[in-house]
Write a structure and sequence with these properties.
single chain; alpha/beta; 8-stranded parallel β-sheet; 6-stranded mixed β-sheet; 26 strands; about 30% helix; globular; binds beta-D-glucopyranose
């Protein structure tokens, strides 16, 4: 439809029809066939069921087509319904969770994964995915860190942009793609004390320098939607924050797509106590420019009255409706309301060998090796025991892969059986214990305390027998999938008591011990690190988890993942991130540290820093060479290192560029990531890796409240993690 026709359509619509375009209803309402019959036992009025402009949570080609047909036929202007869904890291073929994608340091992995998700979801009738999440995360207590690509704005920005491109492709009418929604605007990851939905207090310079850039990258990549966040930002809930939405998002960032509230976030302004009624909440949200009210009555029950009484201008309504119509139009829904929905196509494009191969490659690249001594990995002994609740576990997704079928997951046991039957090596498996203790609030544990203890005792006995038999044990432990995601904040970043006990008992029996931890957040791992010969992290790996893990454990591939978030020594260090300030009293490396920035009982640094991860080989890096030492506006500096694989196997190393601004009008972080490159180096070979340093990389929100580069000294560091001290100075 042409833009002029859309305008004509808008002019023909009644106020009721317009308002209801701004209402999103939960899928269940439609699944009851409410839209078809106009009847529903829910509390939602009949006209809302008939005319609401979008829905979330429904998928399946047949179902979507049926609902769409009835909806379009019933609609006075035959406007199609928009179907949205949380396709976060997989529709049917589940990729590693976003934190795992962050660990790959490979935006192309994220792009390809998003492309697969879009294709599968679109064939199933989905038009919009509520992904990617651009929230910067620095506090592992917050369960939603699993949905982020990590603690660094630069890495997040690259990943978010890549995902938007993967979901949307170049043309939204192409039915292999879906529209993408960047969320949760803004600074949701800064929730105080890591408690979900909490308030966020941020200075403007930290907000702008650290928290906003990743969303901006997604918007610049063309994301068609943005979602508001649940939190307050400096006292104002996002859905009613006019400055944030109208000024920062729309004006400064130039976003002109659809702004949707998070689930019930408009109505929640009443709970926050910023609005006395839903009517007032609706007014605040409209003024802030929130186009769609997700799943509350705030808009449909109040907008007409607010407009008729003159409290909000009718132009605000038209503006919002037009944005929704434009999105429907860009998706090609006026021409083809069924868009990609096709049972036949869904069968053809879903869980294909190609999709699985993309997922498996992503898993391999996402695994992070934190320790490897006594040549524990790769596995090369004759008798291997895989022990732990993750050995034959199908739920390798996060709680945000909601549309997949976990039966399609390849478990570690399945992959190991297949791989090792072709070798001389014998393998045995044992569960060891149930994954959860009974004291969780997840509702997954069906045992009584007595039964659970008896069951764990039995499982432990078998595990110890198997451990005794083996030359090497791989313990597969981790968090339950439902311990990550929304409303899953934790103050103990540990594993269950049963798993801890299993670990200690098995470690006494094992000749060599590899610990594999499947999780969705950084954990405190000291006791596991100490007693394991090797320790590897798999951030919830998805459908091909088992295969990808065995590819690495067996040595078919060398690990190359790097931590996208710092792993602490202690929960007390949270929030912790590498790009912190040095303070006026830095703790000296040696000597007394009295009256300096320190903990009495813990180092300042994390246990494993951002960007850390081992390979199966050894690498050396040369000093940083700069082609000049003065940066000017028109000529960048090329910084080069030589990276040598001095070990015995071919491996991929992630080379990272960090810059430190030695002095600025505002205090500058001790280091900031400005570039990274994955390089494959054959054993014994070396490669030169170069980064171009340009003026824009040095900009920050200066004392003049503007993004500028200040003259002065800088250090460019190039290394294999954020702790690198391999630097060279230059000035600007
Ligand atoms: C979450 C969003 C999600 C939405 C729709 C909310 O509870 O915060 O991330 O997209 O639900 O399911």
């Amino acid at each position: 439809m042409k833009k002029t026709d859309l305008k004509a359509l808008l002019d023909e619509m009644t106020m009721e029809e317009k308002i209801l375009q701004l209402v999103q209803l939960p899928g269940a309402t439609f699944e009851e066939d409410a839209a078809v019959t106009g009847l529903s036992d829910s509390q939602i009025p009949e006209n809302v069921l008939r005319l609401a402009g979008s829905t979330l949570g429904i998928f399946g080609a047949e179902k979507v087509k049926k609902i769409q047909k009835a909806y379009v036929e019933n609609h006075p202007h035959h406007i199609p319904l928009l179907f949205m869904l949380d396709v976060i890291h997989g529709h049917k073929t589940v990729m590693p969770c976003p934190l795992g994608l962050g660990a790959t340091f490979d935006p192309e992995v994220a792009r390809k994964g998003a492309e697969v998700q879009a294709k599968e979801a679109s064939a199933d009738g989905v038009h919009v995915t509520f992904s990617p999440m651009g929230d910067l995360v620095r506090d592992a207590r917050w369960g939603r860190v699993v949905e982020s690509t990590g603690e660094d704005k630069f890495l997040n920005g690259k990943m978010v942009a890549a995902m938007v491109k993967g979901y949307q492709g170049d043309d939204l009418t192409d039915t292999d793609h879906v529209a993408s929604c960047v969320k949760h605007f803004a600074a949701y990851g800064g929730a105080e004390a890591g408690r979900d939905y909490n308030n966020v207090e941020l200075s403007e310079h930290t907000l702008r320098e650290q928290y906003l850039p990743a969303y901006k990258e997604g918007i610049d990549a063309g994301a068609r939607l943005v979602m508001t966040s649940f939190n307050t930002l400096n006292g104002i809930p996002s859905s009613g924050n006019k400055w944030l939405m109208r000024y920062i998002l729309r004006k400064e960032m130039g976003f002109d797509g659809v702004l949707i509230s998070d689930w019930a976030a408009i109505a929640e302004m009443k709970n926050w106590g910023i609005a006395e009624s839903l009517r007032e909440a609706a007014k605040l949200a409209m003024e802030a420019g929130v186009d769609i009210d997700m799943c509350t009555e705030s808009y449909y029950a109040n907008l007409e009255d607010l407009i008729n009484s003159g409290e909000i201008d009718k132009s605000l309504l038209d503006e919002a409706v037009m944005r929704v119509l434009e999105l429907k139009n860009d998706l090609g829904l006026f021409e083809d309301p069924y868009r990609g929905a096709s049972e036949e196509k869904a069968k053809k494009v879903t869980l294909t060998a190609e999709n699985r191969a993309i997922a498996r490659d992503a898993v391999r690249k996402s695994l992070v090796l934190l320790k490897n001594e006594r040549e524990a990995l790769p596995l090369k002994v004759k008798r291997i025991a895989f022990i732990g609740p993750y050995v034959d576990e199908k739920e390798l997704r996060s709680s945000w892969a909601i549309s997949c079928d976990s039966k399609t997951t390849v478990t570690i046991q399945e992959a190991a059986t297949k791989f090792f039957e072709k070798t001389e090596c014998k393998v045995k498996f044992a569960k060891g214990c149930e994954m959860l203790d009974n004291n969780t609030d997840l509702g997954f544990n069906t045992f009584t305390q007595e039964n659970l203890e008896a069951e764990n005792k039995k499982l432990m006995a078998k595990a110890l027998e198997v451990a005794d038999w083996a030359d090497e044990v791989v313990l597969c432990l981790g968090e339950h999938f439902a311990q990550t995601g929304e409303s899953t904040s934790k103050v103990n970043l540990t594993l269950s008591d049963a798993q801890r006990k299993l670990f200690h008992e098995v470690s006494k029996k094992s000749k060599k011990l590899v610990t594999l931890i499947i999780c969705g957040r950084p954990l405190v791992l000291d006791e596991y690190i100490e007693k394991s010969d090797a320790l590897m992290i798999s951030f919830r790996p998805g459908t091909e988890g088992g295969n990808g893990i065995i590819d690495i454990l067996s040595g078919e591939y060398s690990p190359s993942g790097k931590l996208p978030m710092s792993f602490p020594y202690s929960v007390g260090q949270e929030p912790i991130h590498y790009d912190r300030y040095i303070t006026g009293r830095p703790k000296p490396a040696e000597g007394t540290s009295i009256f300096t920035t320190r903990y009495l009982d813990c180092p300042n640094e994390p246990r494993f820093c951002f960007g850390y991860g081992l390979t199966y080989s050894k690498f050396e890096i040369s000093n940083v060479k700069l082609d000049k030492d003065i940066l000017t506006d028109d000529a960048g500096i090329t910084a080069t290192v030589n990276v040598k694989n001095t070990g015995r196997v071919d491996a991929t190393q992630v080379v990272q560029l960090y810059i430190r601004d030695m002095a600025g009008s505002r205090v500058r972080p001790i280091k900031e990531l400005k570039g990274f490159e994955r390089v494959e180096v054959k054993a014994g070979d070396s490669v030169d890796v170069s980064f171009k340093i340009t003026e824009d990389m040095l900009r920050f929100f200066t004392i003049k409240n503007a993004f500028e580069t200040e003259h002065g000294k800088f250090t460019a560091y190039i290394g294999f993690d954020s702790d690198t001290e391999n630097g060279a100075e230059f000035s600007y």
